[in-house]
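G., before I forget:
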Amino acid sequence: MKKLINKPEDVVTEALQGIAAAHPDLVRVHTNPNFLVRADAPVQGKAALVSGGGSGHEPMHGGFVGMGMLDAACPGEVFTSPTPDQMLEATKAVNGGAGVVHIVKNYTGDVMNFDMAAEMARGEGIEVESVLVDDDVAVQDSLYTAGRRGVGTTVLMEKIAGAAAEERRALKEVAEIARHVNSNGRSMGMALTSCTVPAAGKPTFEIGDDEMEIGIGIHGEPGRQRMKLKPVHEIVEMMAVAVVEDIPYAKGDEVLAFVNGMGGTPLIELYVVYNEVNKFLEGRGVKITRNLIGSYITSLEMAGFSITLLKLDDELTKLWDAPVKTPALRWGV
Amino acid sequence: MKKLINKPEDVVTEALQGIAAAHPDLVRVHTNPNFLVRADAPVQGKAALVSGGGSGHEPMHGGFVGMGMLDAACPGEVFTSPTPDQMLEATKAVNGGAGVVHIVKNYTGDVMNFDMAAEMARGEGIEVESVLVDDDVAVQDSLYTAGRRGVGTTVLMEKIAGAAAEERRALKEVAEIARHVNSNGRSMGMALTSCTVPAAGKPTFEIGDDEMEIGIGIHGEPGRQRMKLKPVHEIVEMMAVAVVEDIPYAKGDEVLAFVNGMGGTPLIELYVVYNEVNKFLEGRGVKITRNLIGSYITSLEMAGFSITLLKLDDELTKLWDAPVKTPALRWGV
């Protein structure tokens, strides 16, 4: 196992220490239980957004804490759900009296633990709305999931719902906007290589030198098909067809195209992918009016990418464009 | 060779097409010869900044074209210098009457070609200042270099000199600030894995499953030492000592710490590295007042990192903080 770490059991803690040291202007890090909150939390009168999940997907979620996006993130161990007490303490820390939205990726452990945390928070008088992300069109059920997995749309939801909360919209309205993002967002991923969980010390799965896996999950869960490597225009075609045909698109529709690296993919390849996605959508008469290109929801050092398409309307576009100031996404300020 | 590409010979062109499609608000892409200019180029009365070099180091340099940073970037083939005609055409395209600064990383091909381009541009009446970056403390001469290689400080120079140019400072003053950045910046890199140039189809060098290379260059040039993998605190100590002792530092000095991923390194590991760099500098009484953490000057899919330390003064800090709006770096706007 080749990793830039000290001991496998200290990776998450030491990365959090690094974030705390690097971004004191943006976030505060709480340990035992582990969570990050935006530096000015709690923001009085604002609906707060809390997300979380296993570590190993950085910058998600900790890199998205700050003005205009998340109020708190709860990092679990690598590829392991955070615990209900992390989520509860984060929820209490960021509640500014206007309630808290939990953004939950659809994995069994995350769903169960966020449900428990929400119940406990409600028992302490905090209004909580839970929003599920289940945007991965690759497979219906998966290794850690009943239903579809939650993947790239999570990033877009955190940005857009965060902007709505920043406008001081009411809790239920922020949750509705988040659910609207989930309805309009679809994703699919692929991998060229596996990845190694530090505590495991060996690759999550084996894959041949000439093979790729189409429809992979962000924890290396099996996808739709293992096949020989193909030129990227064929790979994009396979994935984009599945993504774009999962919800109705009409000619002239506007879309946010998110080309995401899985952690070990160089940026030059992501731009080659984006070029193919752009050509594919042009061919269907769908217009990319916003985009995001980079490694934002990753699987440790896995090489590969995912495509997320979010069908836009004026409100989603406006909220996407709103200022954001987090360690990983920043514009307008 | 596992890459998200169509044909090896089309990678650079197709990545440029991807950039053109993704960022028309920020950059315009010119082909044959290949270069990118900021969308509003030429900016009248502003000293213009042009850089360039082999591709495979993305987002450097094309991702740094835009307001507050570069006016143009010239991408060569992967790990191959761009040609003088690219540099000349880019120089002519961005000259707004106040002259052009060439930011040149110290590699023999780049230096020779930028020298020729500068001569030709002067022949056409354009004032050109050339600034060399040679910040890599690892080795004195290298595979493609007489003297030290130009690495991470390039990114910081492009940001800081770009801010000075944006303030409409005179050409020679912008060049002086860039040289001051080079004087104050030092770097060193390391690799866990090799990388594969698409046209070569096989790894640039071989490295054992339990080995790392300390002092590696950004094209896989040999470093100081091949050794067994160590805990990251030992790796950082080795590298940071070499970087920080190359120029005089006194207790209380302020520094910009840039922890850079080589392309295949997950962000969680870069934060673990940053945590070690921070502890190391605290131990020496040097204060990190600014930082940059991410993959900004890369070597295709190589896993590894580099540390760049830039000793700050008030002016450098102010210029670093100035607004920037490029595909890869953005704040303040």
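The first strand of chain A starts at residue 27 and ends at 30. The mean pLDDT of chain A is 97.

More on Monday.
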